[in-house]
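The data are passed on as follows:
___
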Amino acid sequence: MKKLKLNITRVLVAMLVLTSFVACDEVGDTDPGGTSVESMAGDWYITLTDSEGHVVVEHALHSTYNTAANDNTMWIDDAKKGYWIKCKVNVDPKTGTFSATTSDNLLDGSKVTITEGKIEKGAGVSKGGHKVDKISFRAHFDYDKAGYDILYEGHKRTGFYEDEY
């Protein structure tokens, strides 16, 4: 019985030593890389104003993020915190511009057209006074009358407590 325990102990120690050497072996490139729209992705506090000058929503949290295709498109999503928008837009990361023509709005089944979309590096100011990126665009939803647009303008979320709304 003593020999059996000793053999089991030796086998376990040998397995532990072998797996520790294998586990430390670094193979290949460990850098996961980025996405095609990573320079435009993030969370944004956006104020929505209609084309008549009335504030619709203040400081609604929106997100921009890449699509699964990881091409020249990204999502704009307010998670039903603003004017209910979740649609794909075409982007040009080099110029920081984006637009969409009758894109499907997945939150309410409507169509939305986005124009004048741009992200400006360092052009915004957060609630706490930090210099951040600025986002702005104009959206027309197919259920709104012609000429009635929603103007979106805001700044990138920093994650600092003093910048939260």
